[in-house]
Design brief:
With 264 residues, the chain is mainly α. It is built from 8 helices and no strands.
Amino acid sequence: MIKLEKIVCLNRIDYLHISAILSFFILLGSSLSAQTAHKSLRFGDNSYEKGDFSDAEINYRRALEKENAAKSKYNLGNAIYKQGRYEEAIPQFEAAASSSLDPEMRANAFHNLGNAYFEKQEFDKSVEAYKNSLRIAPDDMDTKKNLSRAMRRMQQQQQQQQQQQQNQQDQNKEENEENQEQQEQQNQQDQQPQDQKQENPQQQQDQEGEKQEEQKEKEAQPQERDMNKEEAKKLLQVMDEEERKVQEKMRKMKGKKTVTGKDW
């Protein structure tokens, strides 16, 4: 029993010793990793100062692989920003601003975040980022100047958008009016045969009425018919008698003396 207890005791001692060793190596590994991250970060800073932003980006990413530090995120964002990749720089600045405990770094991260949004012409987001920076560092003149410039550009952008919307509305209105006018013309053309069909019965009625009037007038006039021989003979006799009377009257007038005016 005593032997077993010692064994148990020895096992406990060995376990504690092993745990201590593991903790030591973990701490040592963390220290080495931190040292490696710091080294990569320092190399990145040197490349950044030389203007080699591509090499700086590589070293900052290596530093982040070893240690997820806000400073590495902030510097990585700056290196990417300097290469004109503003869309990729934005999440790095946001991560640095949200994870850093250093007020100065947070203010700078928001400031550079505003710069990245400004370059993307997202001026409303740029204004908000500058405001967040000033909430932390209200006396930063550079941020105030950038905020003023971003607000002016945002107003101009809004005015341009409003003007474009107005122009689009006017254009849509003109197109709608033209389409409506064309539709009305088409409707008139489509209705024209129907209108003609509607007018034709009235025209036919008018024409029939005129024909009926003409027929009535014809019926009211005395009807001419051919004379028979007896009627023609009597007509000739009447005409001869009238002619004889006229000749007799002419002879009587010739027998009278014609009275002229007084001779001087």
